[in-house]
Structure formats: C-alpha cells, structure tokens
Amino acid sequence: MSLRLSTVILPYRRWHEGGRSTWTRAEQLGFHTAYTYDHLSWRSFRDGPWFGAVPTLTAAAAVTERMRLGTLVTSPNFRHPVTLAKELISLDDISGGRITLGIGAGGTGFDATALGQEPWTPRERADRFGEFLPLLDRLLTEDAVSYEGDFYSAHEARNIPGCVQRPRLPFAVAATGPRGLALAARHGQAWVTTGDPKLFENGTPEQSDRALRQQGDRLADACAAIGRDVGELDRVLLTGFTPERSRPLESVGAFVDFAGRHRELGFTELVVHWPIPGSDFAADEKVFERIAMEALAQLKG
Length: 301
Known about the structure:
This protein is α/β, with parallel strands linked by helices. It is 37% helix and 17% strand. The protein contains 8 helices and 10 strands.
C-alpha cells in the first residue's frame, strides 16, 4: 500500500514574515498536501498572532502550483454551510482544483464560545454535524439549494459554477464515534483521526496501534452498513497526538519506523506539523526536511 506524506502549517506567521516562504518551501519539499488549522484561536497560541484559514489558503494557492491544500479541520463551531460553500468553491477555483476540506464536529476549545454561545454538548455537536455535512454536500454539488433544518437553513442558495473538482472537492471527515464514522462512510473521500486522546498522556505505542486498528474496523463496519467499500476512503493520521508525540520527527529512521507501522494499520496519508520553535511542535528543521525528502523512499514494499 502506498503512503503519502503531508504537513500542517499553523497560521501564526504574518504572510510577509515567514508565512509565504513556509508554504512555498512545503511544495519544494514534495509534500502531497499542506493543510492549516481552521480555528479562531488555538490552545497556547491564543494570545499571539493567528490568522484565518480561508485567506491563508487563498494566498497559498496563489504562490504554489502542484501541492494540494486544505483545512484540518473545519467545524460547525463558527461556520455556516451556505457561506462556507461559497468560500470553498472560490478556493477550489483559485487553486485550480487543489482543495481538500478536512471537517469535523468541533470541540470545546475557544471556538466553541467565541460567538458568545454556550459550548455545545457532545450530543449537540453530533446533531449539528449530522445536519451540517449533508447540507454542505448538497451546496457544493447543486446549483441551487433550499433547506430548512433544526440548526441550518438555506433559501435558494446559488453556487454556480460549482467546484472545479467534480462532483465536488473531497471531504476528509474527522471522526471516531459511531455517528461521525457513519457520516465519513456516506460523505467522505477520506477519514481523519488523531488517535485515541485517552492514550496521549500515559498510553503506549502498542496501545495506540490497537486503538487505531479498532477505529479503522469501526469505519469498515460503517461502510458495510451502507454497502460502500471501505477501500474507497483514504485514511489520514494527523500525527503529534499519539503517545509518541513528536518522537518520530527526531530522525529519519524513527519516522520510517513510525510510518511503516501505520501503513500496516491501513493509513494512506500521514500529516506532520511544520516545526514551530518553543512549542509542542518544536523539531529540528533540517531533520524535518530530510524526512520530507527521504523517508517514504526508505519504506519497503
């Protein structure tokens, strides 16, 4: 099974003070996709610079030519399907059909309350995501959409000419629970996971591997329930949140071992964080670049 290597570039640098050069360097290094987080602010970066995902990806599309671009991930926390669809169609056009939408149900971080609302419960997030994603699917594939739901509405929303990619740009659906996995099975072209968060602090790599295998098995069950071949979905692991944390980026050999194990678990794409000094994503940039250029070629088979 082939394996792709991608990166996620956090939007914390001004475009003309390192932002632009990071995205162009990612393409030079041969990354399959460069993603960015779609948050209003995020964890320890909350009190520092942080820029919007859609403008950042628009700028990145203008200075790259081949590399795919995307969000990892967008959520309903502060977005509406109608306005998001218009932005995505525009992005897909500007990039020449290189956009992937990573999307999930959202969480309890700063995005959950930035608009002044109370944070939604896990059930409320699942309910909203269950309405958000199918409506977004329609908005990206139909010229005109009207819809009245419990949480979202659309009235003769026009989205002409639609996406460059047909029938629409791909969805990479982040999910681990049964309702999210069912949405990934029905609407996704890829499935995204960060592993089992309960194992992050005190788990072992072996426990993480078992948890990831179990998640993959549940995805297969969700696909089987609707008669879909699970092999049609790419499997994406956003690294840095398993018990190994950043250790796979300490050397090319360490990453090759990590990548080989996760390829055996069925993953088709690994996403590594672009190094950020003084953060949880700190890494030696020279080693990082060697991994980007050399690691996948060292995998056997």
